[in-house]
Amino acid sequence: MPELSPRRRMLVLAICCMSLLVVGMDATIVNVGLPALRRELGASVSSLQWTIDAYTLVLASFLMLSGSTADRVGRRRTFQVGLAAFGVGSLVCSLAPSVGWLIAARAVQALGGSMLNPVAMSIITNTFTDRVERARAIGVWGAVQGLALGLGPIVGGALVDSAGWRAIFWVNVPIVIVAIVGTALFVPESRAARARRFDPVGQGLVILLLSSVVYAIIEAPRLGWMSPLILVLAGVAVASAIGLLVYEPRHRDPLLELRFFRSVPFSGATVTAVIGFCAYGAFLFLNTLYLQDMRGFSALQAGLCTLPVAVLIVLLAPISGRVVGRRGPRMPMVVAGAGVALAGLAFTWLTPTTPILALLGIYLLFGIGQGMINPPITNSAVSGMPRSMAGVAASVASTSRQTGTTLGVAISGSIVSSTLAAGGVAFTTATHAVWWMAFGTGVVIIALGLITTSGWALGTARRAAALFDDVDAVAVVPAARREVAPDEHARPV
């Protein structure tokens, strides 16, 4: 691939950041529209949960597959298909006549979204071949990611109050159209030097595992934990997990590379991503219902109340990244865990009349935790891994984040579902169980920050990385046979 001009490289970065903006905002923007959805479409609490989880669940299920598909068939082509699917899903969401249609369209959105962020990151790393320029580009990418997560509730609140809940989906359509045209004009095609083989069995088992667990958690309060359907789903989840453990080690290019988990830093990063974003998903879901249904705030007012969280995510994520680069992930993980734990503890005193200044103070603590947590997760996931496997390891971390968000919504909604109609003290008292869970999450993150950065843990990362030396050797041969774009997953030849 010929060297692109500086102007064209900036255009490629802008197009990729546009995709990140819409996908990132959509993970949070819908939360502020939940009360309006409940009123207009007559949605139950479980339907509200599925409105969020249909998106995050599909996203988590297909992130790894989309990345490997793009490496094989072409990143630009996959990126364009993802944009189109996301745009169509957004349009159908805005026109949905019922909550069932909305949930189905959210799944289509997520399928498209799974082809955007991991593929866009590969496009960026192939476009910016100079290490300094690449670092700056990834820094911009990280800032946009934080901005998207933080602005989602605020932008969503403004749109819901001014134009109704359907507007939160309309806004995606023009952005997607611009991105599709820009991709066709400015983004060059590229493929991996060695594309990983498809793993349909592993993909199917991952989908079965995640969907059965989430469905059981959401529907159990209505059907009963010992109902036949819930017990069947529990059996499917266990069988899927066993199937992954047995089948994946035998596949040459497994969807879920189990050898990664021999690295204590990688395992710790995966657990941190799941539980940290579980707390974040629960916070977004419950906070919206509390502020709008219990306190009578408008959607915009509820979104503005989350401004401390948004600002701290944007400000602290780059700082956390710099600290991780200079001193390692221990301090950011400990600070992140402390922020989440203290916020969870403070939330256990939540009442229907908690002063707004006290709420904002708790949001500040939670924002510190969420602002510091992302860079150490990514760093620990790829720490010591050979470059040939860094992208695969990072995709597991991304999947873990989405899985955590999905579980957070499912668990918190199930805990409070029976109290939403009663409101007031009944609802806030029920949320205390969720906030104690968040407190425990923060404590575990602190412990993982200390354990996974020890000398023993780093030694396990080095030994795990050595298991992939044969992958690097195989990747060199195809790279020598054909002219492809430089790939971040392959060592320079």
Task: Please characterize this protein's 3D structure.
The chain has 493 residues and is mostly helical. It folds into 3 domains: 1-187, MFS general substrate transporter like domains (Growth Hormone, Chain: A, Up-down Bundle); 200-254, no CATH class; 258-484, Growth Hormone, Chain: A, CATH 1.20.1250. It contains 20 helices and no strands. α4 packs antiparallel against α6. The longest helix is centred in the N-terminal third of the chain and has 33 residues, at 131-163.
Largest sheet: none
Mean pLDDT equals 85
Segments where pLDDT lies below 50 for 5+ residues? Answer: 474-493
Helical/strand content category: mainly alpha
Strand content: under 5%
Gyration radius from CA atoms, angstroms: 22 Å
Q: What is the third-level CATH name, the topology of the largest domain?
A: Growth Hormone, Chain: A
Order of helices and strands: HHHHHHHHHHHHHHHHHHHH
If helices are DSSP runs of H or I spanning 4 or more residues, what is the number of helices? 20
| N-C termini distance | 16 Å
Q: How many individual domains?
A: 3
Assigned CATH superfamily of the largest domain: MFS general substrate transporter like domains
Task: Give the beta-strand count.
Answer: 0
Given the C-alpha coordinates, what overall shape results?
A: globular
CATH architecture of the largest domain: Up-down Bundle
Q: Which class of the largest domain in CATH terms?
A: Mainly Alpha
